[in-house]
Amino acid sequence: MNLTPVNLLFEDSRPGRRCMRTPGADLKTAVKGLPMEERRDAPPAWPETGELDLIRHFTRLSQKNYAISTNFYPLGSCTMKYNPVIHEAIAARPEWTGLHPLQDDASVQGALQLMYDLAQDLGTATGLPGVTLHPAAGAHGELTALMVLRGWLDAQGDDQRRTILIPDSAHGTNPASCTLAGFKVITVQSSARGLCQVEDLKKHLGPHVAGLMITNPNTIGLFEEDIAEICALIHATGGKVYMDGANFNAIMGVARPGDFGVDMMHLNLHKTMSTPHGGGGPGSGPICVTEELREFLPTPQVVETDGVYSLMTPAASIGRVRSFHGNFMVLLRAYSYVKRLGAEGIRRVAENAVINANYLRVLVRDHWRVPYDRHCMHEFVARPTKEMRDAGIHTLDVAKRLIELGYHPPTVYFPLVVNEAIMVEPTETESKETLDGFAAVMIQVAAEALAGAAFLHEAPRNMPVSRVDEAAAVKNPQLAFRIRE
Predict the structure, then answer these.
(1) Which of 10, 408, 371 is nearest to 195 (CA)?
(2) Which of 71, 173, 213, 250 could be stapled to 378 by a disulfide with Cβ–Cβ 3.0 to 4.6 Å?
């Protein structure tokens, strides 16, 4: 039996020092850029310990990570809801994990059918039949849709429309995506009701407008009541309407964006369809478009002919936007979610998300300022009252106190149209008991804020890391690290 180790040792310049090297690798290549004093000369000295102590050690480490599986995670606009364990079991099956993206179509018919069926389901849910599963996240979906729009404009021979209108309550990725796609951005003001102001929109219309990017429900948690009129105005001027679908979980199964005039939208499968989310990934942001725009979608697309599935390139495709065929394991989980729930279940998700948000809004509104205190969708925005602010309390103080009390803070300081915003999204997967508990803590913090600002200014006091100077950390980040032996 060959017991030759995978890694070999080579000599360091210091006496007795040795480092790990892959057989055949050149020394300079293997450690290029690594200072001699940072190279390890031997494997780390692991302590001798029993299995029970080892398990306890790693279990305690895992418990330091706040997650949806441990407590309430009310991040507004981020939809941090439970990911069913059965989906993880399905995705772990060797029939899926053993696939390779370069396999011949004939050997991956099941995977191709899954992608085809998921695309059909997403097209049905949105009312937009052209679907690509390629984009890696919501912002990537935005960019892909804008590239599709550019492709459509170029096909029309129209090189004058290079302006996108965006409401001031939009996600920050919207203007960034426009810039990457070569468009200029004009901001549309919100009305006193927190909605896209139609009269201000009209002021910016003209032959220079390529389209509008609008989030619906918007980032304040309100449904854009004038969305049909807004879409008609954009179409009348020759542009297209893109809908940021980050908040689609509030209306899926109830309203279809394609029916009220939207031409393009993205879906955050890592939020809406209850797949893993957070920590930078994994993500998936498919886009859905009208039949008119389908031929400009990225390549390749899955098509079905007489029960056989294959990959093809649309006639006027914008090309590839990422490697292979999308984040397949996220698509697999989303497919499981959709098929398990069905049309009725998908609708109930949206209805329960709206019920939970409104229930929580009503519980806290007598203790916190709710700028738009009316029927909301899946989330609502609150802020400290005038009395709290006069006492020197800021939203950051509230967030730090919530951490101390065992709750992950909601999204803070967003949307920008609400000063000192606290954006709360309970999602449909939370129970009444959980919502009651969070409301009680929010009411407690409100009382503490009025009793004395110093108490909140010092929070958190019982965490491994107490209050830090975040402004100084941004200005003077400590990016260097050193391996401790």
Answers:
(1) 371
(2) 250
Q: What is the pLDDT of residues 199-230, one digit of tens each?
A: 999 999 999 999 999 999 999 999 999 999 99
In 3-state terms, what secondary structure has residue 275? coil
Neighbour tally for 191: CB within 10 Å: 14
- 112-130 exposure pattern, b = at least 16 Cβ within 10 A, e = fewer: bebbbbbbebbbbbbbbbb
Q: How far apart are CA 482 and CA 34, in angstroms?
A: 12
Burial per residue of 417-436, b for 16 or more beta-carbon CB atoms within 10 angstroms, e otherwise? bbebbbbbbbbbbbeeebbe
Q: Are the C-beta atoms of residues 294 and 287 closer than 8 Å to each other? A: no
Token representation of residue 95: 């029939």
Tokens of 16: 């007795």
Beta bridge partners of residue 281, listed in sequence order: none
Structural tokens at position 183: 């468009």
Contact of 290 with 128, CB cutoff 8 Å: yes
Question: How far lies 126's CA from each of 256, 286, 349, in Å?
Answer: 5, 12, 15
The answer to whether 258 and 287 are in contact (CB under 8 A) is no
Where do runs of H (alpha helix) occur along 256-305? none
Domains along the chain with CATH numbers = 85-341 (3.40.640.10)
**Strand, coil or helix: 59:** helix
Please state, in angstroms and rounded to a whole number, the distance separating the CA atoms of residues 399 and 424: 12
Write the burial class of residue 40 (CB in 10 Å: 0-12 exposed, 13-18 middle, 19+ buried): middle
Return phi, psi of residue 86, to 5°: -60, -30
3-state secondary structure of 215: strand
